[in-house]
User: Which sequence fits this backbone?
């Protein structure tokens, strides 16, 4: 099973360096920083206790850069309630100590050793089995899976009680462990991929050495379980699924892999599934054909799925929101963490960062949308995980449409096979409206005033009809140096249908440093008050304004129309 992504939790700016060092070891992990104490964290939290408890309850491994005591007191109320624990570690904020606290069976000692090695210190391991045998039998290294945990616990306690043990099968890591071995021992550790019931006094450990080659005719995970059973191979030994490139977008394959908890890889090798397996991993023992669509191959060693074929590429078109980290949706943050390549207009790529050294930034000019979209598909078609960034929402005058246009125009199956997803963001009109109150609280119309990509007559016509229809209006791209007169003309049209008292909201750099919000009237509005970083919201005939206690005004458009119901 894939390991869960840890959360790195810090309380002060002084811990950020150590946190980033740890993040190098777990590239998908996010750093959680306390609001107003930490700048530059991936996520901001307001309350330490609530945050830590929530992570723990969601089974997220926790690396807390603070005193062990604080972590213990915070999680204490939850300890009795919960069966399985995620790994929880306290790390000194200067990185000088790594203390595994909870989650002995969830791999906390392994994590402690990894982190300690990364920081160049020794881990504070206190687990007796680990200390005595130099390894935790119940948490084998990647490439091996434990048969049954409850049986395993009894087994280890017998070992600790002084019994000796016999090892059958090959597991180099066990050979290095300081186990009290004896060929006559009652206790046996059996390492192998065969399917079997554990006998008394037996600990079963499965090497992940089995590959199944299959294709898009697969009916589901059960067919794979049946195939393994038919060849008496343990499902725990399955390392990965391999399928032909042509079936890359097949949903059943992806679902089966997810259900079995193994990666799904692809290869372009032509021919039968047997040949597919053989060509992708030449050192496999001859593959066993189960049917025309399923072949099983067993290797003498655990397999590294990363070395087999290639993954399905991914392209996510994401919205950063207006700028503030709190307004970025969690799915977007997770996507940025897993990305190999980040493409976009330089300002937005910088806004999406910071990125790790292994992530490649491709910054381009704002106008090269189609070129950027094609570049993104080229990278994703190679099996990379690619992100195209937009500000606000990617579907609002931004990259999502260009990406789909590029795909629509392409006949390259590799592009169509890419795992493409759009992840939404808070658009500038909505972020601005929220700060002003609810000016878009009733029907409204979103328009870009830029005539770069559409004729000006269309814009005039839409402005005229939308104003006539008494819709509140949100103007994106209201003005620029190359489009100096358009806003003035647009306002002339709106004024034909709206009174000078109509409320207007101007939001500039909303959610970014130096943001400003102004509430004026249509009569007062002049193009000089607006630039290309401004959102212009024009109220309808029902939009109201009233003073707010802190100063300034609330603006809202009621949900009812005409007469109050
Ligand atoms: N996809 C973006 C819009 C891109 S068009 C979104 O959904 O928000 C660019 C225009 O959006 C700018 O000219 C400006 O009118 C508006 N805009 C973008 N970010 C803004 C911000 N933080 N504050 C105010 N307006 C913004």
Assistant:
């Amino acid at each position: 099973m894939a390991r869960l992504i840890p959360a790195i939790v810090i309380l002060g700016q002084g811990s950020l360096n150590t946190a980033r060092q740890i993040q190098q070891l777990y590239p998908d992990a996010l750093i959680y920083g306390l609001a107003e104490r930490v700048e530059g964290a991936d996520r901001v939290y307001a309350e330490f206790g609530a945050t830590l408890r929530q992570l723990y309850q969601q089974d997220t491994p926790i690396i807390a850069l603070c005193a062990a005591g604080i972590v213990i007191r915070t999680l204490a109320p939850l300890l009795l309630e919960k069966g399985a624990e995620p790994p929880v570690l306290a790390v000194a904020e200067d990185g000088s100590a790594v203390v595994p606290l909870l989650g002995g069976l969830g791999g906390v000692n392994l994590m402690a050793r990894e982190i300690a090695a990364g920081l160049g210190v020794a881990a504070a391991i206190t687990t007796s089995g680990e200390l005595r045998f130099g390894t935790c039998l119940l948490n084998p290294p990647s490439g091996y899976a434990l048969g049954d945990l409850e049986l395993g616990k009894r087994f280890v306690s017998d070992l600790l009680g002084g019994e000796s043990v016999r090892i059958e099968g090959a597991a180099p890591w066990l050979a290095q462990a300081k186990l009290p071995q004896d060929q006559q021992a009652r206790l046996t550790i059996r390492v192998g991929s065969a399917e079997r019931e554990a006998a008394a006094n037996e600990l079963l450990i499965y090497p992940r050495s089995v590959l199944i080659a299959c294709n898009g005719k697969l009916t589901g995970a059960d067919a794979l379980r049946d195939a393994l059973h038919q060849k008496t191979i343990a499902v725990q030994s399955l390392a990965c699924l391999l399928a032909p490139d042509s079936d890359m977008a097949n949903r059943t394959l992806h679902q089966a892999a997810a259900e079995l908890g193994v990666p799904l890889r692809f290869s372009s090798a032509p021919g039968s599934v047997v040949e597919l397996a053989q060509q992708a991993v030449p050192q496999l023992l001859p593959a066993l054909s189960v049917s025309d669509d399923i072949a099983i191959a067993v290797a003498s060693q655990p397999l590294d799925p990363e070395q087999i074929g290639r993954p399905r590429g991914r392209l996510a078109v994401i919205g950063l929101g207006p700028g503030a980290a709190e307004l970025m949706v969690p799915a977007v943050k997770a996507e940025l963490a897993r990305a190999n390549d980040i493409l976009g207009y330089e300002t937005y790529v910088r806004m999406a960062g910071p990125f790790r050294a292994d992530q490649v930034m491709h910054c381009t000019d704002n106008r090269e949308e189609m070129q950027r979209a094609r570049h993104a598909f080229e990278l994703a078609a190679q099996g990379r995980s690619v992100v195209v960034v937009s500000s606000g929402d990617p579907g609002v005058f931004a990259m999502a449409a260009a990406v789909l246009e590029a795909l629509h125009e392409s006949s390259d199956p590799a592009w169509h096979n890419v795992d493409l997803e759009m992840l939404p963001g808070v658009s500038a009109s909505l972020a601005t409206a929220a700060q002003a109150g609810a000016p878009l609280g009733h029907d409204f119309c979103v328009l870009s005033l830029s005539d770069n990509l559409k004729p000006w007559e269309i814009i005039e016509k839409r402005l005229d009809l939308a104003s006539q229809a008494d819709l509140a209006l949100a103007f994106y791209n209201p003005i620029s140096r190359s489009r100096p007169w358009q806003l003035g003309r647009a306002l002339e049209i709106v004024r034909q249908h709206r009174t000078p008292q109509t409320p207007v909201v101007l939001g500039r750099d909303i959610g970014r440093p130096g943001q400003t919000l102004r509430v004026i009237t249509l009569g007062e509005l002049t193009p000089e008050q607006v630039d290309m970083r401004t959102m212009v919201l024009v109220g309808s005939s029902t939009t109201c304004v009233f003073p707010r206690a802190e100063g300034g005004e609330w603006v809202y458009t009621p949900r009812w129309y005409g007469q109050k119901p």
Observations:
- Residues 369-381 form the longest helix (13 residues).
- Residues 322-323, 390-393, 396-398, 427-428, 432, 476-478, 507-512, 532-535 surround S-adenosyl-L-homocysteine (CB under 6 Å).
- The two ends are 57 Å apart (CA to CA).
- The first strand starts at residue 7 and ends at 10.
